[in-house]
Amino acid sequence: MLAVALSLAAAAAFAASAMFIDSVSGRVGPLQLSRWQMSLAFLMTAAIVALTGGWQSLDLTMVLWLTASSASGIMVGSLTYIATIQYTGPRISALLFTTASPFALALGFGFRGETVSLIQAAGVGLIVAGIALAVMGPSRDEGARNPKPLWIGIGLGLITAFAQALGSLLARPAMLAGADPVAAMAVRSGTGALFFILLLALPAFRPAELPSRSEIRHIGFAALAGMVVGMSFLMAALARGDVGIVTTLSSTTPILILPMVWVAYRRIPGPLAWVGAVLAVVGTALISATT
Fold first, then answer.
1. CA angle, 44 as apex, 175 and 82 as ends, to 5°?
2. Higher pLDDT, 233 or 82
């Protein structure tokens, strides 16, 4: 039950982070956004761990697992996700990202022998269907800005979902071994920040200008909510629950963001979104009842 609560708390934090990111969307490029977000997240998590002594919970083996997790979930996953949005647009890319749940279930079963009951499987199915409905329907940003081959975008989206699921799987051994969740996130965000900083060596990845102070402040809030709080909750959930269940529950961000959008922008979600939310709630209840 604690793993369920932590996973949902992570999803809520991711939703809050998305609201802050939305405030700078279109003004800060995705690669520059990732670079600043990872760097600020590392500074915050490293400071917290230095004060709490969480570094002592890590050994070399844990660090290697967490670095591999970052390489898959952050380095590969972030780049392919950006490319997916460019090829398919935000709505379809969000739909493709829901495939992270079945990927996580398959990886958890194949590499760790993790299984789910029929009731849990039904819950996962309802949540995935609910997420899909929540991001479907009419949208102001249908598809990519510049039409490109859709099959390439679908392929990139599936790679993104697989990379995210694999990143969670690779982090699980370190978390089961007792790694501090914030220290684990410091390693993952630090590795990701170094990667995005090294990309500056390539002229094509250099930004035309730096973000303004206001934009950096919003990126900082996004990093605090998503990368520090949200990912720390996710790491803690992975120490207590199966990869597939945790990945599914933490992917309910499109559902949890509905009331936030309603309050912040006075935009009432459409009927499909509410149906999706109900399905996700029922699915979560089924998983909670058997966990």
1. 80
2. 233
Total domains, the chain: 1
Residue that has been written with the tokens 């199915």 in this structure: 125
Q: In sequence order, what DSSP letters do the residues of 50-71 get, joined into one string?
A: HHHTGGGG--HHHHHHHHHHHI
Q: Are 290 and 120 in contact (CB under 8 A)?
A: yes
d(CA 71, CA 68): 5
CA–CA separation, 79 vs 167, rounded Å? 14
**One-letter identity of residue 84:** T
Least confident window among 2-16, 95-109, 115-129, 260-274: 260-274
Classify residue 254 by its DSSP letter.
Answer: H
Give the residue numbers spanning the domain of 24. 2-289
Q: Cα separation of 115 and 97, whole Å?
A: 22
Residues 6+ apart with CB under 8 A from 12: 230, 256
In which region does residue 144 sit, left (phi positive, over 0), alpha (psi from -120 to 50) or beta (all else)? beta
Q: What does the DSSP 8-state code read for residue 76?
A: I
Judge contact between 287 and 246, C-beta under 8 A.
no
Write out pLDDT tens, residues 54-91: 999 999 999 999 999 999 998 898 888 877 876 776 66
What is the number of other CB atoms lying within 10 angstroms of the CB of residue 232? 23
